[in-house]
Amino acid sequence: MNSPKGIFRVVFLLVVSIALSVAAGAEAGSVAAMPGLKEYRIERGLSEEGRGCIECHAEQTKGIVADWAASRHAHANVTCLDCHGAGAADTDVSKAHLTFGETRISPVVSPKDCSRCHPSEAAEYARSKHANTLELIWKIDPWLNHGLNNEVERTTGCSHCHGSIVKLEGGRFDKQAWPNVGVGRINPDGSKGSCSSCHTRHKFSLAESRKPEACGQCHLGPDHPQVEIYDESKHGAIYHAEGDGWNWGAAAGMWTPGVDYRSPTCSTCHMSGVSDVATSHDVTERLAWETQAPLTVRPGDFEAWPAVDHNPKRERMKMEKVCYACHSKTWTRGHFFRFDVAVDNYNEVYYKPAKEIIDDLYEKKLLSKDKPLDEKLEIDMYELWHHEGRRARFGAAMMAPDYAWWHGFYELKKGLMEIEEQAEALLKSGQPAKIFEVKGSGGDTTKPEFGK
How would you class 274 by CB atoms within 10 Å of its CB: exposed for 0-12, middle for 13-18, buried for 19 or more? Predict the structure, then answer.
């Protein structure tokens, strides 16, 4: 028989051998697990020019090629030139790019370019408020029309969401206008908008555009806090609790409530195809009210940008059908009844009385109409509808009680009291309101050309 010492020695050596083997394997595994630089292998039939673009940009701008390679475009052999290739009549040709060869390309990819493959989506987008929002704000925005903000403030603020007018000067892009992906951007080819506002280049992800964060890039803050309102709602609570497990990448027309997702996002209600309600890139569809306007009106009656062929009953029915995918008719109709009552409450109790007070002061020359936002009462009236009034209406529409009440109707009450107090003081004194110098003024008030 083997001695106990001999047996112990064999066992000890075996344990050490196993430990060394595990350590060696772990070290080898750690080396293998270290992330390496991914290389895109061109294995599909691409044109020589298209292949050249990819090979060059794989060295120069790796992130762009990585995004494109993961996109449906790449899988369908749609290359850089299919979107960026410039025709003989195009004026926005990159001179810098021509130093690398004869290929004419444009950095600006417009909805007109996208329409070659996505004609319906481009046509729907073209008629929407999104595509025309730059023209819309130039029609109604006092900050622009009266030069009350300067070019720096317009470029860093307004233009990021509403869009810029992309121009070339001496063959070079105007740096005040480019780069820009605003939804109402005016492109050199005359088309309006930027598809990459929502489907960011170069992946153009369906999943990204379906999530509320895509809309929250612009729809947030004191005047239109839709993404914050969504976060407060039950819909948002479910999304944040469970959304990581939903099937965000389902094919267009196949994204199904109760199967791919449990709770709607912005795109579900306003754009996605649900039941027999067709997908649309016109976000004005399915709206019965224009709740961002000073006085709530029907979208077809919104003077600054009236919706074409808009029937509020028909569009409300579309929105209700979206709700029916998860809710009963009793629940859905009850919600919209309360929303309609909230709209009427805002119009009759707050906006109309405040407007009557302000109009009376203008008539009595106690307020000046020369510049609309250089007196405190004018600012207070502006915020009454542009801030508190919108929050009350949006909160009621999207089931966010804190926004409907504390950020909305409560602030409307306080704001109306302050307007009444200031108006009474002016009427008592008979002296016009103090006119302030609006700091940071100086923006060009010349209305631009708005494309085709």
Answer: buried
Separation CA 272–CA 258 (nearest Å): 14
In a domain, 315, yes or no: yes
Q: Which residue has the tokens 């925005």?
A: 141
Structural tokens at position 96: 């810098």
Q: How far apart are CA 313 and CA 287, in angstroms?
A: 9
Rounded Cα–Cα distance for residues 52 and 109 (Å): 19
Residue 6 lies in a domain: no
Q: What average pLDDT does the segment 303-332 reach?
A: 96
209 and 191 share one domain? no
Q: Which of 129, 163, 195 is the last residue of a domain?
A: 195
* Domain housing 385: 205-440
The Cβ of residue 222 has, within 10 Å, a number of other Cβ atoms equal to: 13
Residue 131: φ, ψ to 5°: -65, -25
Query: Does residue 433 belong to any structural domain of this protein?
Result: yes
Task: Summarize pLDDT for 133-172 with one digit per residue, the tens.
Answer: 999 999 999 999 999 999 999 999 999 999 999 998 777 8
